[in-house]
């Protein structure tokens, strides 16, 4: 650290250890391969459930008229095409291929998180965060339910947009980000949340502000789809602009944020928020002592990225606010659904990484022991919670699979009493 003539202290970060970086990446990919196999193995015995039957029954790869109508309130064109491609080529005799696709998309999400954390925090925290995401049992609905390619796809495309943005602001990258966000919107309404995160960052960051017009592409396409197909979808459960719906939002958002921070820390919400607040205070104190780097004016010398922090925080709040408007009364406890915690928790992890900046262990002594203890404690707590929830989610989905098979046997039983009328009702649980 040195002090310039104006009295500003500058923090000089140590050069990136390329050997450590390569070693961490190798460890990540070994963990990714093992977790991929684990997720598929844990899913053995599961089968199609709830909303998947809507895709199987009412969508067709050869009928473009079924590609654009909403599923619930979601623009789901890309998941529909992917799902129908699998149904019409592989069939529905085995659920394993659908679990393979989900697991592969999840590993992609974990890798994107690793890349984003590595640039901000260094390889050590990136590896820890990446492994936690790989075993992210807090979001088990998105790991054992083949239907959830929509949510995972939107998140992966949004994270990919952040990776592109980290390369620097250019017209070509702005167009690439706009196309990625358009694809995210075509996966699920989660794409709108990713658009919020990117849009706010572009408004705050002067380098990207000049390219804001590029975001008219995803925004305009989304508006056109809503006007043409999706206008009635938002109110099919309840009016999202009613007084009751609006009144539910604050508690829904608070519960959701609490779930997100617990998922990435393994700690109760209050303790987790206190810990993150302390980390934020230390990071902001460090940021006040530095000047922005000339090559990256959105970063201080410690690697903190305020624009991304603000954008992701607003995006997480938006995720739960929109979900609360539509679902808080119709689905009891919806703020606790793992499908939402998956999205919010992973965004929160990237947010915290963008806030703390570069993390290096002290060279020796008691401070190094303390740092290793804190880092190890975080990893252990987060992994214990997420592995526990992963096993719980597996048991839950195996029960659902047994129920589906039992209902199928009853429906196909030719010896059913004449007075029994079996009229299955469509199930639509997904967000």
SSE inventory with pairings:
Layout: E1 2-3, E2 9-10, H1 18-42, H2 52-58, H3 77-89, H4 96-121, H5 123-134, H6 141-144, H7 149-165, H8 171-185, H9 190-204, H10 206-209, H11 216-230, H12 243-265, H13 269-287, H14 306-327, H15 338-356, H16 366-412
Antiparallel strand pairs: 1-2
Helix pairs in contact: 1-4, 1-5, 4-5, 4-7, 4-15, 5-16, 7-8, 7-9, 8-9, 8-11, 9-14, 12-13, 12-14, 12-15, 12-16, 14-15
Molecular structure report:
- The protein is mainly α and 431 residues long.
- The protein has one domain (37-408).
- It has helices spanning 18-42, 52-58, 77-89, 96-121, 123-134, 141-144, 149-165, 171-185, 190-204, 206-209, 216-230, 243-265, 269-287, 306-327, 338-356, 366-412; strands at residues 2-3, 9-10.
- The chain has a two-stranded antiparallel sheet with strand order 1-2.
- Strand 1 and strand 2 (9-10) form a beta hairpin.
- Helix 5 (123-134) packs parallel to helix 16 (366-412) and helix 8 (171-185) runs parallel beside helix 11 (216-230).
- The longest helix is centred in the C-terminal third of the chain and has 47 residues, at 366-412.
- The model is unreliable at 1-14, 291-302 and 424-431 (pLDDT under 50).
